[in-house]
Amino acid sequence: MTSALNAARRDRDLLDLGDDPRVDLVVIGGGVTGAGVALDATLRGLRTVLVERHDLAFGTSRWSSKLVHGGLRYLASGKVGIAHESAVERGILLRTTAPHLVRPLPQLVPLLPGLRGGQAALVRAGFAAGDALRVAAGTPAGLLPRSRRVAAAEALRLAPTVRREGLRGGLQAWDGQLVDDARLVVALARTAAGAGARVLTRVEATAATGDRVELRDTLTGRTLSLRARAVINATGVWAGEVDPSISLRPSRGTHLVFDAAAFGGLSAALTVPVPGSVSRFVFAFPAAHGRVYLGLTDEDAPGPIPDEPRPAEDEIDFLLDTINPALREPLTRADIRGSFAGLRPLLQTDADSTADISREHAVLTSPDGLVTVVGGKLTTYRRMAEDAVDAALANAGLVAAACRTARVPLVGAVSGARRDRVEAPPVLVERYGDEAGEIVAAWLADPASREPVAPGIDVTAAEFDFAVRAEGALTVDDLLDRRSRIGLVAADRAAALPAAEAAFARAR
Ligand SMILES: Cc1cc2nc3c(=O)[nH]c(=O)nc-3n(C[C@H](O)[C@H](O)[C@H](O)COP(=O)(O)OP(=O)(O)OC[C@H]3O[C@@H](n4cnc5c(N)ncnc54)[C@H](O)[C@@H]3O)c2cc1C
């Protein structure tokens, strides 16, 4: 079966389900967790339907720092098991499942006068522990180099705008970085679709139990009732809307968006400790479309869950105030081109601060059999999905094949010498892996499709066409805000809007 997702396939799938509404598993939520669950279940042979009320990666999964973590932060709080799990999952993504979407990213802590000896020693010890985690997880240094101290000149090569005065060099460690988080979600959903899953965006679950889900097509208003042998709620911060017995305590994390030029060609994650803390850092890192993101905050965010959270003014000040002492020229609000915020789906506990709430995931089963999977990290989505499907099978008394997701590459996955043979510019291979050839073929067939979608933007019209034809984009927002991340800068979004509209006009 093809992995292509598009409007025609969606219509067909909805019609088929209208004729025969009995399936094995319904997954609610099209973030990284739900897409991972759909892939896991489909590969085990279950007839699976995923429903997402907006678009793939509409929720938290597109607001992350896009890092594939080795779990160092968990180690700092003594959680060795989850740190190890994170490092193992990072290795699986880098090597097998998504080597095209994840690359090694050096992380640089500049040794500046503000970083006192004790703090520097702690960072060094943390990086050494990260090396041990990597080794224990079986990830070779050839894939992610070991940490080291670098000279001032090397620190400045990696992060050219760092303050030179008093710079004693830097501490460097390596982690994984996604080309973009939303692209991982789309690749997961498409791989699931290729294995036979029905992936339905703009379909909302309006009610769910362990064996029935009421659906509403948000494009037509039509409703549909599915009978399922198991149902998994993977709706992240919205999990309590689907199962009211679940109580979450979301925490907001904010990033700012800059032009890469503001950081002078940064090629590492420039990492600066938050004054007075030994475990919190802000970091600036290179990102898609010639930009740099600067994050990250951790703010209690009680109250109703917005569709799109927004940064608070004091978070913007905090990020600038923390990074600026490490820079030669301070950045100001005038340098900021955009900002974004996401809500971490943390389970309610007795902890005082959201920063203390466990980032571990939880699988919970309600009395009527509805399974909820929540928490965790983007990095650990695969393990979360495996645990959720195991729980759903056990609960429903279903027998299915064992989990296979650690060995199945996602659509486009390519690495090593095969990657070198893909005849396409590197920026395309990072986005599409071995499917990059399809974009190049479109350019050759129609040279106009090689035009950038807006001046200075590294996305071409052929990529918008591919997103409509194969990546399930149904609206211009899907193209601008999730298949690409052009929309993170409002001015760029406005400039690319006509090209997004033209892509849908061509598809009609
Ligand atoms: C600021 C920030 C930075 C982070 N950085 C990292 C990082 O660098 N690395 C990392 O590993 N992790 C990171 N994380 C954690 C990671 O992003 C999340 O754990 C993960 O994305 C959660 O995914 P999810 O699929 O569970 O939820 P979501 O992505 O929120 O998906 C839930 C989906 O359910 C849909 N939905 C809700 N209700 C319904 C309904 N009734 N019917 C149908 N659909 C519905 C929503 O539209 C949404 O798309 C970060 C988190 C934040 C907030």
Automatic annotation (TrEMBL):
Swiss-Prot/TrEMBL keywords: FAD, Flavoprotein, Glycerol metabolism, Oxidoreductase
For this protein, what reaction is catalysed? a quinone + sn-glycerol 3-phosphate = dihydroxyacetone phosphate + a quinol
All copies of the Alpha-glycerophosphate oxidase C-terminal domain together span: 403-497
Q: Which InterPro entries match?
A: DAO_C, DAO_C_sf, FAD-dep_OxRdtase, FAD/NAD-bd_sf, G3P_DH_FAD-dep
Q: Which SUPFAM superfamilies match?
A: FAD/NAD(P)-binding domain
E.C. number, please? 1.1.5.3
The similarity annotation says: Belongs to the FAD-dependent glycerol-3-phosphate dehydrogenase family.
Under what name is this protein listed?
Answer: Glycerol-3-phosphate dehydrogenase
Organism of derivation: Nocardia thailandica
